[in-house]
Specification:
The complex is a heterodimer of chains A (387) and B (381). In chain A, β11 and β12 form a beta hairpin. Chain A has 12 helices and 12 strands. Chain A has 2 domains: 182 residues, no CATH class; 171 residues, no CATH class. Chain A is elongated and about 95 Å long. With 381 residues, chain B is an alpha+beta fold. Chain B folds into 2 domains: 175 residues, no CATH class; 168 residues, no CATH class. Chain B has 15 helices and 12 strands. In chain B, the strands form 2 sheets. Chain B has a 10-stranded mixed β-sheet with strand order 4-7-8-6-9-5-3-11-1-12. In chain B, a hairpin with a 5-residue loop joins β7 and β8. In chain B, α2 packs antiparallel against α10 and α2 packs across α12. The two termini of chain B are 26 Å apart. The chains are: A alpha+beta (387), B alpha+beta (381). At the A-B interface, α2, β2, β3, α8 and β11 of A face α2, α9 and α10 of B.
Chain lengths: 387, 381
């Protein structure tokens, strides 16, 4: 016969003073785990959220990021005439030839510097990326040295307010507007006119092409057409797929999260063991009584395991609550793929919270295993005699 | 029985609890040391022996923008400059690996000894490298990792240039701070990429330390208002510029360390109070026997202090032994090359342990002081 669950719940609650520190300890371990994983998730999401399923992106074969890709003007012209490309009301193909340049700019405040991704786009490039909205000022004028910066970058770099000017490539650029990428990779970009960018940085070629296709079938045809053309050393893929491949930077962060969780959980298991041993010690007589009443060894064992798991579960819940405070908090680091500043937010997903809870329960069960075995093995008579 | 043995007996009377407390302190301090060392390695990367006399010149726009090859003779003429070599990042993927694990640079092999004197290899291998334009030298760490020997052929596909290059390993060097890179002939690179007339960066050897500031200013001034303005800086400054790029990672590791320390204090403090609560009655007896509060405090403090320091010895000592005698580049998959546990970090971790011992004894001491002898004697637990 199993002991009622309320027995365990009440035991944990009645001894809250003794168990509080253990619960808090487990809570902090779970909070650290969930936070670091939330960072990795946020970083991945900023990439996987990006792109429009109707768009196809074209880069040089063999390049892993736009910043190291090249598309010549001849190639651009050739692709311009492909029939699968959608056209606007003036019958112009919806295609943007982009120039991606990394520029080194000073951060706000501390005097450090970092690389920022400056994307030169064709005028139609804005309409091709509906995820980006202008939140302040106006878009840049083609043919002028004007840029629009993302709101998140504006918070991190110097001279990024509307009307500010900054220097790069020996020339001055004026910020005319602030855009919002709505948690996509575009949150880490500055935009300007493509041809102006090519002349400013002395670039003969474009970096990549982004185009809108007529429909899904046209997308397949176009990708197959470009991939099979031996004369074109280009790689075509859907925009969504391209950004899905840009998530490698999250790998070391996940590693850090796992490492911390493992190391800290060892400490937490020791703490849980201590608490549970004390709990078993204090209840020796009670356990003897239960045995006399007819509860079997395995019921006692299960009961203490459940108690440890419950205790850790409360800690896990608290930990998830703690980590909620950083949900949405924006941070930035260098992406190992684009070599530029990537801004993203901590993202706590329900699955991540569930993982944190499972993790805490495991800590609780492992920590209470030895004390529970001890409780189950107590000799009945001696236990009853103990004070 | 002396006071000392009384304290030791008390601390060890519940051996299981004492062990668990010591181990949890040890694990936490091990983690703390690891985080602190990682933070230090990230923010203060190790410096190469020859770095003091080297200047790195990159495009002012950013490192990702190339420089024109025609700049070389202009830099060479600047007084105080001993040698100038191109240094171009090839960004090649080895075999079918998803991402590169060692960097490859195209440079002027004739200047290897001048620029990177710390890279040691047999003279015969170096001469072989000089002669064969399609050969390369590779650091010992990478050579060991991929089991490469002198004479082996390897092929690398660039992610930046449309080129796949095949190299014959002419030599294996060691002695630099990061023996992983592959170095090869810039001429081979130029041929393969169709003579772009571009280099990634210039690495400049300066004659003496006194010349450094003047040379840096002169290089920067030489290309001011040209189509390719440059940023010349010491190798150290160049290295440190990457740290600023890491952004908030520093802050993150810092806050995690704080949480670890806090968790540690919490758990140990609770264990200590558990130990004291258990012998409330005894302490009351001691009080009744005439021991003063001050002496009771001393007992509790000494016990908690002792346990914390023992934990520190195991945790910090373990971290020191592991990171000093273990192969760190192997353990972290090459993320860290060095992982030095400095005396400062050891000192800090020990200090944390010591304060932990003190903090953990406060709560039990207060409750002992508050309880009257009669109440204490009544306690059953």
């Amino acid at each position: 016969m199993a002991l009622p669950l309320t027995y365990n719940v009440r035991n944990v609650l009645v001894r809250w003073r003794a168990t509080l520190a253990t619960i808090l300890g487990i809570a902090l371990v779970v909070a650290v785990y969930v936070s670091v994983q939330a960072m990795a998730t946020g970083l991945e999401k900023s990439s996987t959220n990006t792109g429009d399923p109707r768009n196809v992106m074209i880069v040089r074969k063999g390049s892993t990021a736009e910043s190291s890709s090249q598309v010549t003007r001849e190639q651009f012209k050739l692709i311009n005439y492909l029939p699968q490309i959608a056209r606007d009301s003036k019958n112009q193909p919806l295609i943007s030839a982009d120039v991606v340049v990394l520029i080194n700019l000073p951060r706000r405040g501390d005097g450090g510097e970092a690389n920022v991704l400056l994307r030169g786009i064709s005028p139609v490039g804005i309409a091709l990326r509906p995820q980006v909205t202008l939140v302040e000022g106006r878009w840049f004028t083609p043919g002028k040295r004007e840029v629009v910066v993302s709101r998140r970058l504006a918070a991190r770099f110097a001279n990024f307010e509307v009307g500010d000017k900054f220097k790069t490539g020996g020339k001055e650029l004026t910020v005319t507007g602030i855009m919002d990428g709505n948690n996509t990779a575009f949150d880490s970009e500055i935009w300007m006119d493509a041809d102006e960018s090519r002349s400013l940085f002395d670039r003969e070629n474009y970096s990549s092409l982004l185009l809108r296709v007529l429909d899904a079938a046209a997308s397949q045809t176009l990708i197959a057409r470009i991939e099979s053309d031996k004369r074109l050393p280009l790689h075509a893929l859907s925009e969504v797929d391209y950004y899905k491949s840009q998530t490698k930077t999250a790998v070391p962060i996940k590693f850090l999260g796992d490492f911390l969780a493992t190391a800290m959980s060892i400490g937490a298991i020791f703490a849980a063991m201590n608490t549970m041993y004390a709990s078993v010690g204090a209840r020796t007589r009670e356990i003897g009584t239960l045995r006399v009443l007819g509860y079997r060894r395995r019921s006692i064992l299960a009961s203490f395991l459940i108690e440890g798991a419950f205790l850790a579960f409360i800690g896990g819940l608290l930990g998830c609550l703690f980590s909620l405070f950083i949900n949405g908090y924006s941070i930035g680091t260098m992406s190992f793929q684009s070599w530029s500043e990537t801004v993203f937010s901590f993202r706590i997903t329900p699955w991540l919270a569930v993982k944190g809870l499972i993790f805490s329960v495991i800590v609780g069960i492992v920590g209470s295993l030895l004390p529970a075995i001890r409780a189950a093995r107590l000799p009945v008579i001696a236990a009853l005699k103990s004070v | 029985m002396t006071v000392g043995s009384f304290i030791i007996k008390n601390a060890l009377r519940n051996k299981r609890r004492a062990t668990l407390s010591v181990l949890s302190v040890a694990v936490s301090l091990f983690l703390l040391v690891t985080l602190l060392v990682a933070l230090r390695e990230l923010t203060l990367p190790p410096e190469d022996a020859g770095a003091a006399l080297r200047v790195v010149v990159r495009n002012r726009v950013s490192l990702a923008n190339p420089l024109p090859a025609r700049q070389r003779p202009i830099i060479e003429k600047i007084p105080g400059v001993e040698a100038v070599s191109p240094f171009t990042w090839f960004g090649g993927n080895f075999k079918n690996e998803e991402s590169m694990t060692f960097a490859q640079f195209a440079m002027d092999p004739k200047l290897l000894r001048t620029l990177f004197g710390e890279a040691k290899m047999p003279e015969k291998q170096y001469e072989d490298f000089l002669k064969d334009q399609r050969s390369a030298i590779i650091g010992k760490l990478s050579a060991d990792k991929y089991k490469l020997k002198v004479g082996d052929k390897i092929s690398l596909t660039s992610t930046i240039y449309p080129a796949t290059l095949e190299f014959r390993i002419a030599g294996i060097y060691s002695g630099t701070i990061d023996d992983r890179n592959l170095l090869f002939h810039h001429k081979y690179f130029d041929e393969a990429t169709g003579d772009l007339g571009q280099v990634g960066t210039w690495w400049v050897k300066v004659r003496s330390a006194e010349d450094m500031p003047r040379v840096i200013t002169a290089i920067n001034a030489a290309f001011a208002n040209s189509s390719s303005e440059v940023r010349a800086e010491t190798e150290r400054a160049f290295q440190l510029s990457f740290i600023s790029m890491l952004g908030n990672i520093k802050l993150l590791v810092g806050s995690i360390s704080t949480v670890v320390v806090f968790t540690l204090i919490l758990v140990t403090a609770s264990t200590m109070s558990m130990a004291i609560r258990e012998r409330f009655r005894e302490l009351a007896v001691l009080k009744a026997l005439g021991f003063r509060r001050r002496e009771l405090f001393a007992f509790i403090l000494a016990e908690s202090f002792g346990l914390a320091l023992l934990g520190a010895l195991i945790g910090v000592g373990g971290a020191y032994a592991l990171y000093t005698y273990g192969n760190i580049s192997h353990m972290t998959g090459g993320i860290f090359i060095t992982f030095e546990v400095t005396p400062k970090i050891i000192g800090f971790a020990t200090l944390v342990a010591a304060s932990l011992g003190i903090v953990a004894s406060i709560a039990p001491s207060i409750s002992v002081a508050r309880t009257s002898v009669v109440d204490g004697l009544k306690t059953l637990d």
